[in-house]
## 1
Amino acid sequence: MEVLTLPSDTRNLSKVEPFLASAVRHVLDDGKYYNAVIALTEAVNNAIVHGNKRDASKEVYISVLITQTEIVLTVRDQGSGFDLDNLPDPLHPDNLLRDGGRGVFLIRQLVDASDFERTADGMQTTMRLFL
């Protein structure tokens, strides 16, 4: 398992792709790899901006696990979490021109399976890409 811990500063988003590339680039074709980059970057951005509220004293934990059948990407923050059932629909006409609000939608579209859950100390996003 590969692990990366980042302070909650959006400048650290530039570290996500090199971390992911070193862990999985040799296993995924281009399409799945770039889907994984976008999904993981969205999850980390959500953790920094929405979860940890850009509080640099809080951290975002990222892990990559490769098994025989899948790649599991996990992102944890130290925020208060969110209610998955009450997120605005980004495809609703009122939301089409809104800035933001598409992260969870994009993640769900780009990976094979995703899960969003509250933990004892924050929120955890788990994304799976099947091999």
Note: The chain has a mean pLDDT of 91.
## 2
Amino acid sequence: MRFISEKHEKRFREACALIDTDNRDEVAACYLLTAKKGIWKEVKKCIGFSELDMDLCAFEPQTVTEQALFNAAYDIYHFSDAVILRDLADPETIPNEAFSLIFEAILFLRFGFEGAELERIEPEYA
């Protein structure tokens, strides 16, 4: 998995220590939820007993990117349709930064850690 910063990677590794890392859905959701400090600050309260319970989260996004990341994490975790394919094509609904992270989470879901290198990316918008 690629991280947008060292802080993202640190938050992600912190989250992985709290969840079942054999559950790809939880890992992928945590990857998205740890991308932004504001999301993780609120959502980490929703982890208990080695699992993520997003139904306990009362997260209020401050930006379109936060909303997109939270919705995508919720979709992954609950198999819902808060983000649809059409949304992914719309940069106003899913900004480029969120799109890149969502795509990375989907790659992880498909290929797991074996297919996802752990590295930091330097996006043009960071």
Note: The beta strands are 2-3, 47-48, 51-52, 119-120.
## 3
Amino acid sequence: MSLFWKWAFFAWLLTIVILSLMPHPPVPHQGLLGWDKFQHAGAYALLTFLGAMAYTFQRRTLGGRFLAAACLAVMVGGLMEVAQGVLTVSRSAEFGDLLADGVGASVVAALARFRS
């Protein structure tokens, strides 16, 4: 089962990288899903969840794995913001996006800590 989670984690990570560096990514324009910060929070919440599930070999508690995965997700978000500012001309780095990434990752980690 761990192999499934690893593939899912890396597939989602690749999706985030592609969408982050794409000049004009597809964007839903309706309701909450059309809000950029909600998209960031959701993407990095899922990355946190998949990261924690993929790395079950870590000798940590479930809450500890989710905390480590959240830290990794926020670092990825920071790298994507830097990459957008440096490697693209049609995208820009925004601190608000990084903050939304952190909120999504933190919510998942907090829920896991609360549950365990």
Note: Residues 62-87 form the longest helix (26 residues).
